[in-house]
User: Which sequence fits this backbone?
């Protein structure tokens, strides 16, 4: 009985081993460097006051001027979106009184702006600083039409995987068969190669053009391919 059971296990396992030996799985990567043609900036203003209304009003005047400036410089309203509108009560702990002391209210109003004209971004940043912006939280770069770039990265990933499969098959002395499976194992990733720099100069009465370096973006795609090994 033990011998029969052993032979049964071996017989059942043989097809699985043969199937594994008849396949080749490889992964491929595609890389593409591109120059960005759009920037996304998060900026705004904050203010303080004895009441929530006064604190918010202190920011509203500045943000209204900022929005007017942006549209005046050609930024479309569809590229401007409020991302944060907040009012908080401010207190300070008084050790002598052993309690919180009310200081007033703090308000924040920030907007996200897509800038499609990178040549004018430095002048735009200095202009909104002059208009009262005292927050610059983020500056990132991207491309307006990412699909063609992502597709090219995918093509390069497939080509890389196929080149590896052919290399392995030639090295092993076997014939590469047709593709059994193709998986996109990662969404195309866009990351900055040479980052941007933006600075706010509080000492100047009128802000100079803010220095910004767009650098390059790298688009990367990954695929996994499974090939048959022909006899």
Assistant:
């Amino acid at each position: 009985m033990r011998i029969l059971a052993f032979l049964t296990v071996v017989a059942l396992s043989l097809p699985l081993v043969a199937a594994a030996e008849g396949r080749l799985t490889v992964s491929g990567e595609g890389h593409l460097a591109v120059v960005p043609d759009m920037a996304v900036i998060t900026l705004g203003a904050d203010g303080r006051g004895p009441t929530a209304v006064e604190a918010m009003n202190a920011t509203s005047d500045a943000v209204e001027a900022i929005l007017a400036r942006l549209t005046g410089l050609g930024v479309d309203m569809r590229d401007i979106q409020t991302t944060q509108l907040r009012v908080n009560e401010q207190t300070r702990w008084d050790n002598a009184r052993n309690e919180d002391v009310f200081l007033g209210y703090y308000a924040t109003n920030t907007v996200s702006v897509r800038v499609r004209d990178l040549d004018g971004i430095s002048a735009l940043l200095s202009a909104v600083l002059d208009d009262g912006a005292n927050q610059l939280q983020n500056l990132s770069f991207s491309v307006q039409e990412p699909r063609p770039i992502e597709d090219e990265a995918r093509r390069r990933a497939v080509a890389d995987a196929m080149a590896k499969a052919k290399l392995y098959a030639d090295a092993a002395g076997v014939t590469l068969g047709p593709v059994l499976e193709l998986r996109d194992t990662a969404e195309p990733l866009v990351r900055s190669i040479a980052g941007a720099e933006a600075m706010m100069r509080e000492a100047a009465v009128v802000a100079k053009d803010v220095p910004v370096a767009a650098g390059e973006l790298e688009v990367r795609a990954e695929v996994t391919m499974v090939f048959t090994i022909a006899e």
User: Anything to note?
Assistant: Residues 1-20, 194-207 have pLDDT under 50 and may be disordered. The first strand starts at residue 23 and ends at 34.
